[in-house]
Amino acid sequence: MPVRAGVVALLVVALAALAWWLASFGVVESVGAAEELIQSWGPWGVAASIGLMILHSFLPFPAEVIALANGMVYGPL
Q1: What separation in angstroms does the CA of 60 have from each of 24, 40, 56?
Q2: Along the 77 residues of the chain, how does pLDDT read in single tens digits?
Q3: CA separation for the pair 50, 48 (Å, rounded)
């Protein structure tokens, strides 16, 4: 397996594990719960958002999802 495919596979597994972990806490059951979780991270929530946008430069996933979530959590500027 080429290195790039291995990295992508590892990221997919990590995202699946994160989704399972969040589902076990009921975060993905409601938008409000996800919003509260991200806001509870404080400045780290903003850092995570920026990190996801940077990651988007290297991995093909829709940035619109991140942008919509940011608009929902932090409101329009």
Answers
A1: 27, 28, 6
A2: 587 788 888 888 888 787 777 777 766 677 787 788 888 889 999 999 999 889 888 888 788 888 888 888 888 76
A3: 5
Domain chopping of the chain, boundaries: 3-74
Q: What angle do CA 45, 47, 49 make, to 5 degrees?
A: 70
What predicted TM-score, i.e. pTM, was given to this entire model? 0.59
Q: Residue length, the chain?
A: 77
How far apart are the C-alpha atoms of 55 and 63, rounded to whole Å? 10
Residues in Cβ contact with 39 at an 8 Å cutoff, skipping those fewer than 6 apart: 45, 73
- State the residue for tokens 């404080």: 42
Does residue 11 contact residue 3 with C-beta atoms inside 8 Å?
A: no
Both tokens assigned to 32: 């409000």
